[in-house]
Amino acid sequence: MKKQEIQLTLHLTPQEIFRIDNFIFENDELASVVDVFCRERKPDFLYLWGESGVGKTHLNLAIAEQLQQRGRQVSYINLQELLDTADPEVLASLFQTDVVCLDDLQAICGEPAWEEAVFHCFNQLREHEHKLLICADQNPAQLAIQLPDLRSRLSTGLIYQLPSMTDVLKQQALISHAQSRGLILPEEVAQYLLRHYSRDMPSLMLVLQRLDKASLQAQRRLTIPFVREVIHHG
Question: Domain boundary residue among 161, 180, 213?
């Protein structure tokens, strides 16, 4: 595994790189904590949790990107994908990087070898005073981790829940992501998407990606008639 670059396992194009400046923080305290986590040596362990679609992977990747921009060696690991493609031993050398960002921790629950590997990775990072960011779908107390020592370690960090996104926040997120692509998404078009299509953010991001490509090819602005045409006939 390369140690000096973020492991982008989501097959993202450059336009889809998630950044802190296009993440919509509902909680000012969390925004402040993320800023300090990226700038200062402490805190060295941050645990983010929430249901699917609230932006955990976005924020995980954004923090990884921000830290890399600050000259830190960062490894981003999606445990759900790694579980199907690698052995637990792959985590053994991660302590050599300055920052480790683990996504989808719930994927390794009930997998003894993987739980043990994450536990040892945690201890090695702490021993070397390196940073660890973990994202999961539940808080440490609810997560079905079987290894008591790992469950205990997970409760020692700063723990924040990412709340479910309101329609207003989803609209803001769509507009912000569109701007990151150099695309103007009018409010009425964002509202139209929320009213007529899937309301979960991953699906909405895929729709936005499709609209971006169609708009570029047709050299047309995003209007409700154009969006309707692309979605139904594109």
Answer: 161
Q: Which of 161, 177, 194 is the last residue of a domain?
A: 161
End-to-end Cα separation, the chain, in angstroms: 39
pLDDT, one tens digit per residue, over 190-219 is 999 999 887 788 788 889 989 999 999 999
- Per DSSP, 3 falls in state S
Judge if 196 and 83 occupy the same domain: no
- Per-residue tokens: 196: 């007529």
Long-range contacts of 121-127 (CB under 8 A, 24+ apart): 121/91, 121/92, 121/94, 121/95, 122/150, 122/153, 123/153, 124/94, 124/95, 125/44, 125/94, 125/95, 125/100, 126/44, 126/45, 127/95
Contact between residue 34 and residue 99 where contact means Cβ atoms under 8 Å apart: no
Q: How far is CA 54 from CA 24, 51, 93, 114, in A?
A: 10, 6, 30, 25
pLDDT at 202: 79
DSSP character for 164? P
Nearest Cα to Cα of residue 170 among 185, 191, 184 = 191
Assign 3-state DSSP to the chain and report helix, strand, coil percentages, each to 5: 55, 10, 35
Co-location of 50 and 132 in the same domain = yes
pLDDT for the residue numbered 7: 45
Specify the range with the lowest mean pLDDT, choosing from 19-23, 104-108, 214-218.
19-23
Alpha helices by DSSP H, the chain:
28-39, 56-69, 79-85, 112-127, 148-154, 167-180, 187-196, 201-218, 224-233
